[in-house]
Amino acid sequence: MRAIARGYVSFAVDNPDLLRLMFRSEMLDPTRVSLAEARQLSARALMGAFDDPPKPTRGESATFGRLDAAQAIAMTAAWAYVHGLASLLIDGRLKALAASAEGIRDTEELVDAAIEHMQLIHDTGLKLKAGQAARK
């Protein structure tokens, strides 16, 4: 998951205009079959970072297929986190924070530490969940 987060942020920082274009929904034709297929492929890759993605159903038009609430929540939190980090880096909003933090050399190091921090929180949650399931 850390590698995916770092990859997302790196891609965004290296391609800020492309990232902005990718999120301009009003410029996309949702009836275009190739776009629907690309969205489904991307969504299933994202879902695979958290769980086994559901198999696509032929003719299915929903980007994410069928998800349970826990999957949707986890994906939303992770996506918002990495997209937010990328946006803050692109917009230069972390420079002052990184400069004021002892032991942080630059914004990239700050973001990397933030990604590591989120991974630790995620791992702790998984351990707690596994412990609760084991007690049942």
Rg estimate, integer Å: 18 Å
Helix count equals: 6
Mean pLDDT: 80
Derived structural class: mainly alpha
**Termini distance?**
28 Å
Notes on the protein architecture:
- It contains six helices and no strands.
- With about 140 residues, the chain is mainly alpha-helical.
- The longest helix has 29 residues, at about 105-135.
- It has helices at about 1-15, 15-20, 35-50, 70-90, 95-100, 105-135.
- The model has no long low-confidence stretch (mean pLDDT about 80).
- Helix 1 packs across helix 2 and helix 1 packs across helix 4 (about 70-90).
Summed up, what is this model?
With 136 residues, the chain is mainly α.
Task: Give keywords.
mainly alpha
Write the layout of secondary structure elements.
Elements: H1 2-14, H2 16-22, H3 33-48, H4 69-90, H5 95-100, H6 107-135
